[in-house]
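Hi L.,

You mentioned the student needs an example of a multi-chain input paired with its predicted structure. This one should do, with 272 residues in total across all chains.
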Amino acid sequence: MRIGELATVSGHPTRTIRFYETRGLLPEPTRTTNGYREYNEGDSDRLDFIRNAQTAGLTLAEIASIIRLRDDGTAPCRHVNELLDAKLVDVQERIAQLGVLRTELNQLIRRGRSLDPEDCTVNDICHILRPPDRTC
Amino acid sequence: MRIGELATVSGHPTRTIRFYETRGLLPEPTRTTNGYREYNEGDSDRLDFIRNAQTAGLTLAEIASIIRLRDDGTAPCRHVNELLDAKLVDVQERIAQLGVLRTELNQLIRRGRSLDPEDCTVNDICHILRPPDRTC
DNA sequence: TTAAACCTTCCCCCATAGTGGAAGGTCAAG
DNA sequence: CTTGACCTTCCACTATGGGGGAAGGTTTAA
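Structure written out for the whole complex:
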């Protein structure tokens, strides 16, 4: 099948399919005599895999590293487990950071409600956003 | 004071100070006869403000919009309140999304521990990352 | 035959917040 | 007079996941 059909069955735009090829996510396909890319079912499966992996928060580079292992003949399970563990740690850290930010924002919003815009001076730019509240 | 000194007192690299100027966060400074930028205390205060606003999760573009209002002679408090409200919503959404992702990752990790790498086939690439678990 | 719908490669663009380097001007001390 | 520490501008690059459009070749259906 040609790239347009693969795009239809996989749900990725043709541009994205070519882009994935440059990133090593799809193998260089065989070409028809006129230079058109030729794909098969396996390529569609691979695109599904990529989408699933992206859903799990993996970057294209990480997904490429998994695929490289598989193409080298190694079962990538171990590597996948490591990636998932690291990703979980990463996600937990980001959640924690966002939690801190949420607290900070709530404080600033409360403060904004208690301050009078009349008191906001030119030098402050805006007095709501002043000190990095030393309460923490 | 020249840019190097402002860099020292503000804690921002000179490159960043020039960069902020291009983004409208700092006014175009006066120049000495040889073309060097001349700064004063107010510029240092403004850099402090920028840092505080960044701590609150505002982007440079948003901070610039606040500064523009102030420079136009309008107290930006109202606008700041709106930005902070929107940012809080945004942060809460991201936390929720990351929560979903964390759940997904935990499921995948548990799954990875229960699957045998021996069963991982070439077609799967890796069987751990298979279906977008329809359990949700 | 010809127009639409494909396909190809190429290079540039988005946002984010800067960082790096090159090539050149200036100024103070030794 | 020269060396080092400043300063200037300009252009390119980082990571992320693509999108836009140009310029050209091919195929398919009317």
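You could point out the following to them. The CA atoms of residues 114 and 128 of chain A lie 9 Å apart. Chain A has a mean pLDDT of 92.

Best wishes,
N.
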